[in-house]
Amino acid sequence: MRRYLLTFAVAAALAAPTSAQAAFFPGEPIDGPGDAITALGEVELAPDGTGAVAYLKPDGGVDHVFVARFVDGRFQAPERVDAGLDAASSQPVVAADDEGRLAVAFVNGGTLHVVNRMPGEGFGTPQAIAGAASNPDVALGVGAKGYLVWVQPGSSAADLRAASVDRAGTWSVLPGILDIAPERDAGTGTGRPRVAVAADGFAIVAWGEAGEVWARKLFRTEVSQAPQQLSGSAVDGSPALTADLPEVDMEFDSSFAWVAFRQVVSEGGARDRVVARRMRGTEFDPPVAVDGLAQGVGGGATAPGIDLNGRGVGIATSAGEGGIVRAARLRFDAFLPTQTLTPAFGVPPAPVPVLSENNDGLVAYFTGQGVSARPSLGGDRDEGDGQPVLGEEAVLSAAGSGPVDAGKGLDASVDRAFGAVVVWVQGPPGAQTLTYGVHDRPPSSFPGYTGTQWRPLEDNVLTWDDTFELWGAVSYQPLLDGQPAGPPVAERRSTLPEPIPEGRHAWSVVATDIRGQTFQMEERRLLIDRTVPALDVRVVGRREAGERLRIRVRAKEPGSAGQASGLDFVRVTPGDGARIREGEVRNGKRFATRTMTVNEAYSAGEHELKVTAYDRAGNMAVERIDLRIRR
């Protein structure tokens, strides 16, 4: 799996939610059934959950490149991207960046072309890169930085070349060749090249040349002058013979990468092993076996695969004797003991590993009966020894949809939050379907915003935060006391159709994604009180200048105990500017909670006595009394 690496904001990637409750959803069609799908190229997801699949199918009796974009959790209608080119196309590959940016490379009539799709735009016109080309691979990184590698005839043998892209989407061929010896074929057959790009825009290319595996870094418009030979070192004490099938991936930091490849070793005879080497700067650490085989025991291993997230956590996979699938988790720059994921299927399983930024991943593979995947959950769900927890195998292919055509390819990709897509071809000859299954995380935890204290809530509005969801719109169903309250809404607020009765309630919201997965927000209390306090104000005494008047105030909070907010305070403004609040001390006496007496002496004239009572929900009652004081 060729994986682009995008940092956008590293903190956002590190905070990607986990997905313990996520589910697999099997076989949905992308294209077909109809004329035969010729071959699957690649599927690629960007960290933000957008992406695409590229593949070949006949159009007018000639193979052409079609791309179906992945938007809001589903594949869109296929689009032909080699429009205007009449010759047959082959070897499509695709790379994805956030906001729907894509790069699709393919060979048409022997000429390598690349088509860009910029954010918010359609597919552009194919740009010719090189003639007599083959074996392309493409990768995109953050900020539109990307690379394309391919093979083309040189002066005496096949040479490996590279191109980079600028922000405008123009691809430029890098000077010179990447291979080591111009007189030897490079990047052909099982030595086909692979490229990966880091967040800073630098990349690494790995390829096979004359039975050896090599790697070289690319620096935007320059080629490193320090290529490294990765094969040739002994594995588990067994001398190395030849090597091929390199797979490569990089961390966010371009100083670190891993290359996995198949190496034939001599153990009293030739034996295939799958090994990996870590790049640090421009040098590589010694090889480590990731196939789980003991020296001389357990047959051979092939089909190397590796996928890293930006922080260097990864999965390496291999296929053992009889079609066993094995995986080794990379953690803290070292591989843990290899785990066996499947029994022997008796067919080449072609395993594909993918790993998200939250350390959850899966391995997809052929079983002989169809397509399956098995989760490998990391993060904080290990069992104390650092090993990932292996989930149950999920069958993605539908038994009633016809046979799976393993010869036409299998690929998988993942976004930053462990939304994964697996793509294959299924169906009888002449009525094949390009099919995909997904691992879709449900809506995640989200908080409510409407306060939990007593309130009138006169606008009848409940508010909450969005759930985390990369794949499509989420609908929100508010619940009041466990029952639906109004229709589902798409936004983060709901105006309930009926006033909420006064008293104590509990409310929540259920978020539902496009595949019917749900998450219910934790219940919050809702305390409603819209009734103002009752006031009884009496003035006792002679209303003459200099005489003291007794102002008796009784405030009462209507409603039964526990179903009303309760009286908060009473404020009396006696008319001369003095303010008296419940609980304050005046004339050495503390006012009672609900009854107070204020002694005031007024001068002759007109005065206004104002009494205000507040309850704990903020409801306010006001009574004004005009006092005419005689001389």
Number of E-state strands: 54
Distance between the termini: 99 Å
Largest sheet: 6 strands, mixed
Helix/strand structural class: mainly beta
Measured as a percent range, the helix fraction is under 10%
Number of domains: 3
Q: Counting H and I runs of at least 4 residues, what is the number of helices? A: 1
Low-confidence region ranges: 1-20, 585-593
CATH architecture of the largest domain: 7 Propeller
Report the sheet-strand fraction.
over 45%
Mean pLDDT: 90
Q: What integer value in Å does the Rg equal?
A: 35 Å
- The CATH C-level name of the largest domain is Mainly Beta
CATH topology of the largest domain: Methylamine Dehydrogenase, Chain H
The 3D shape can be described as elongated
What can you tell me about this protein's structure?
The chain has 631 residues and is mainly β. It has three domains: 10-14 and 81-395, Methylamine Dehydrogenase, Chain H; 454-528, Immunoglobulin-like (Sandwich), CATH 2.60.40.10; 534-629, Immunoglobulin-like (Sandwich). Helices cover 1% and strands 50% of the residues. It contains one helix and 54 strands. Strands 38, 40, 41, 43, 44 and 45 form a six-stranded mixed β-sheet that branches. A hairpin with a 2-residue loop joins strand 8 (102-108) and strand 9 (111-117). The chain is elongated, with a radius of gyration of 35 Å. Mean pLDDT is 90; it is low at 1-20 and 585-593.
Short description, anyone?
The chain is mainly beta and 631 residues long. 1% of the residues lie in helices and 50% in strands.
